[in-house]
Amino acid sequence: MKFLISLISFTVISTTQSAWAKTVHYELVATKTPINLSGKKTVDFALQVNGGIPAPTLEFTEGDDAVLVVRNEIPDDELSIHWHGILLPPEMDGVPYVNTPPIRPGESFTFRFKVRQNGTYWYHSHTNVQEQKGVYGAIVIHPKTERIRYDKEAVLVLSDWSDENATDILKNLRKDGDYYQYKKGTIRSWFGAISSGALGTYLASEWTRMGGMDFSDVGYDAFLINGKRDSQLITAHPGEKVRLRVINAAASSYFTFALGEMPTTIISADGQDIKPTKASEVLIGMAETYDILFTVPDHKNYEFRATAQDGTGHASAWIGMPSGSKIFAPDKPAPDLYASMDHSAMSSMGHGDSHAGHNMMKMNHAGMDHEMNHSDRGDHQMKVMDHSGHAMHPMQDKTQTEASALNLLTVSQIRSPHQTSFPSSSPRHDVKLVLGGDMDRYIWHINGKAIHEDRTIEIKENDIIRFTFVNETMMHHPMHLHGHFFRVLNSSGDYSPLKHTVDVTPMATQVIEFKADEPGEWMLHCHNLYHLKTGMARVVKYSSFTPSSEIQKWQKQDPHDHDHWYFYGTAEAATNHGQVFLRTSQTWNQFEARVEGRNTAGTNLSFKEPWEVESDLFYRRWFSRCLNLVGGGTVFDETISANVGVSYLLPLLIESQILVSHRGKFRLDLEKRFQWTSHVFTDVDFTWRPNQARELGDDLEFEISLMYAPSWSWSAGLMLTDNSFGAGAQIQF
């Protein structure tokens, strides 16, 4: 009888819920249309959805059935849409060739899923670099019963914009990871270090071969809020409470945002409620979202300002009375290019709590489990529809006093309003993920391998999965896991917050954990678009999950499995020296050719005398940022020889190479650049060939330049060799 009553009750409840649920339809059409977003030029590569950048905001209520028709009218490219942070079946996730088919030109795809959560989310392309070109938009999901009182709400979609085609941006970064430093004005130099009183720090970073802190890779032409550099976001009268939904849809820019001259109250992170917290500024990584509450105090107009972390620009949106006086957000100084990389410096720069990350690493499972109390949360707490606690934990606008507001809110200070911990009896699986890369060659990887080398992390359903991110680079990495929410283990312990994207700060460790209760194949990747595209990604696969035959067919063509080739070249012409260098490279494979000519007339600078010509044709196999093995052929002194050897990056960023020929002859090469100012540098190149020169004393060759470079592309100056002095120019391409 009890079973029959329970069955009837379940049927009635299910039928009632189905009757209440409504189907919400949207049609999204992607096109390629000229646009001018920077105010500087009109570009023809931009991709718009329903005629705009950003794409339209999609609104739902928790429990709705979403039907989203995506049509691709881009004439020369596939399309995809990923519903970022949304819990849904894997085949609806929108990652082409992984769990969803690509949308070919002229075709459409219909996404259908039950809306199981509420909060602020977003959507974007997962194809090529389309996200940078404009395919991104906001998602707002309202709860069935509103818990937070506010009078108005507004969405702020932050983004970065370049007037350069994003496809070319990626190619430029693969030529040289520092390609955009000239444009941004962020070149570190000896003179700059001395002027800043940081020569010791500068030398220490070179000794450790790390270079300096790197806040951003790309030089952008504009930063935008809702597609505009400066605009009136919303008119709000004194006393009105406004909910601002902030989404970082940038391709590769962190922002700090502030509102007027006062702290803001942050109430949600990544769509999940957090303990209301006041902060003067908030650091928001790519793909993160934050909701804030703001009560307009008077008839003034308040600036919401999002400043790029690298200090190269900002965007503004205004909230309040347009006719009132403007209250500007504080100006933010440019970051210190010569800051020390110790933990105290990182905290002062707002990079989060790196100590907390390391402390988490020191805690063993027993210590963590001792803190965990899962008495009444149920087995499905990591599902948003079960763990949000909306009915049990009504949000109230109770916060710290203004005097106790945080200067800068990061993930280390966020606290969930309810317990998120798991029972100690749950089976656990730990995975260490080392985030690494090479800024010079611009490759990024996990555990020393790009995704094309090591695609899959396999997990078991219902295990508690713990990912330990160890960042061994000088950059922030916003790591995003599709299809799940995870706990970010911070000082809040049992109340550690739930997120879908977490900032892993430079040279620090961050630990996350989640219950594996969403069977499928899901991307895990850095949400810096260019890091993703050069290898920093994996696919998290449930061992119990088998994709459909259609998806398996698409997976065989997955571009994540391809290791693309990129080209770089340089040419130098001087009165006493000339050289052409060409290189094509993948992640670990590299082919290069060099032809060099030298004036043999000493200081006469005669073009009538014969010039010595030598050339190299080498293959390199890289094993790490510092080490590669090399083999190939060399023409020197009219003699052809085969060579093998090793190249290694020494402390102080000295490039060294030792070769031995098939005749048993040795060659040592040493190279280093001295960046004196932001535009003046010296390249030093020594080559020693013992017992190989025709004349005694000619075993050692060197070239020392003093060059002025107004841009990355070209430089001009003086060239000193071991037997002559001249002047000339160099181009890079």
Report the uncertain regions. 1-19, 343-402
The fraction of residues assigned to DSSP E strands is 35-45%
Main structural class: mainly beta
- Characterize the largest beta sheet: strand count, sense, and whether it forms a barrel: 12 strands, mixed
What is the name of the CATH architecture of the domain at 357-560? Sandwich
Global outline: globular
Average pLDDT, to the nearest integer? 88
Number of helices: 12
Q: Whole-Å distance between the termini?
A: 80 Å
Number of strands: 43
CATH superfamily heading of the domain at 357-560 = Cupredoxins -  blue copper proteins
The CATH top-level class label of the domain at 357-560: Mainly Beta
Radius of gyration: 28 Å
The level of helicity is 10-25%
Describe the protein's architecture and organization:
The chain has 733 residues and is mainly β. Among the domains are: 20-148, Sandwich (Immunoglobulin-like); 357-560, Cupredoxins -  blue copper proteins (Immunoglobulin-like, Sandwich), CATH 2.60.40.420; 566-732, Porin. Helix content is 12%, strand content 42%. The strands form six sheets. Strands 9, 10, 11, 12, 13, 14, 15, 16, 17, 18, 19 and 20 form a twelve-stranded mixed beta sheet that branches. The protein is globular. Residues 1-19 and 343-402 have low confidence and may be disordered.
Short account of what is shown:
This protein is mainly beta. Among the domains are: 20-148, Cupredoxins -  blue copper proteins (Immunoglobulin-like, Sandwich), CATH 2.60.40.420; 357-560, Sandwich (Immunoglobulin-like), CATH 2.60.40; 566-732, Porin.
